[in-house]
Each structure stands twice: as C-alpha cells, then as structure tokens.
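pasting for the record
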Amino acid sequence: MRKAARILVKGTVQGVFYRQFIKEHADKLSLTGFIRNLESGDVEIILEGEQDSINRLHAFSSKGPEHSHIRSSNLEERKWSGEFKDFKILRF
C-alpha cells in the first residue's frame, strides 16, 4: 500500500554526507520525495512509497552514516500526493 511520510532528523547531520546517505537508501528502496537541510540545522525528509520501505528508511535515518550523531528521527504520516518521480537532494 502506498504511503507518504515526513521525517524530521535532529542531531549532527550536516557536513557528514547525511543527505547522500539517505538518498542512496531511498533509491535502493524505490522511494520518491526529497531531503533538505533546514535553517534550524535539522534535516527534513519527505517520502512516498511502500510502508515497509518508509519504515526501513526511517530506521536508516535514525542511525545515519559514520560521524553523524542522531538525537531524534521523528516520523509522521502524510497524505499521499504522487507528485514525486524520484528522490532528490534539495539545496538551500
């Protein structure tokens, strides 16, 4: 079943290749959406895809790549939009 979600990640996630780490996993899991840094220093991930894949990416987002330090990774369900064709890293 197709689902959509938003993950807000807090911690040391900028400057440690976190966005690329998440993109690689999202691509492997056939998820669409985007990841971006927020002005607060947090990272926002918007996802659409199968529930199991979203759950698996949420687990990856909680761990992060080497040198990251994740304080929290909160998942909230969203309404499916179908607007994304792939997964992108958005820049400021």
